[in-house]
Amino acid sequence: MKKVLLLILPLLIAGCDLDPFGLTTRTIISPYSLEILEDGETYYLLGPPNIGWGALEGTVGKIGWNDQYILTWQNDDGQGGGWRVIDTMTKQLSPIISAEELKLMQHIQNIFPVLPKNAWDKL
């Protein structure tokens, strides 16, 4: 029985996407974190556990933040892409916002989004 378990266990572990050392995620503002996929080029924004796997419906194209807000460009997931604002205190995600609408939002004027790779390096 032990031999069978020793043969099966590596196969089970290989089939799981494990990250025991947390090397694929970096916290932005808890509970929000940036996750890099195995390809080294795709980034997701993870959020509170109760909102599902990702905080966005697409991947991250650009991202920036201050003490309370995260501003991100959501790449097109087949339903559209655009700017999104997350209030990390209330955990509210805005609908897609145009660049013109962003200019009117005073609370995010000091946020300068960068490519996710550059944000990753800062975290």
Which helices and strands, and how do they pair?
Layout: H1 2-15, E1 25-29, E2 32-36, E3 43-46, E4 60-65, E5 69-74, E6 82-87, E7 92-93, H2 99-103, H3 116-122
Antiparallel strand pairs: 1-2, 2-3, 4-5, 5-6, 6-7
Q: Could you give a short description of this structure?
A:
Helix content is 21%, strand content 28%. With 123 residues, the chain is an alpha+beta fold.
Mean pLDDT over the residues: 85
Largest sheet: 4 strands, antiparallel
Class from helix and strand fractions: alpha+beta
Q: Per the principal axes of the C-alpha atoms, what is the gross shape?
A: globular
Q: Strand sequence of the main sheet, in spatial order?
A: 4-5-6-7
Give the beta-strand count.
7
Low-confidence stretches: 11-15
Distance N to C terminus: 46 Å
Plain-language structure description:
The protein is an alpha+beta fold. The chain has one domain. It is 21% helix and 28% strand. It contains three helices and seven strands. The strands form two sheets. Strands 4-5-6-7 form a four-stranded antiparallel β-sheet, with no helix packed on it. β5 and β6 form a beta hairpin. The longest helix has 14 residues. The chain is globular, with a radius of gyration of 18 Å.
Q: What labels would you give this structure?
A:
single chain; alpha+beta; 7 strands
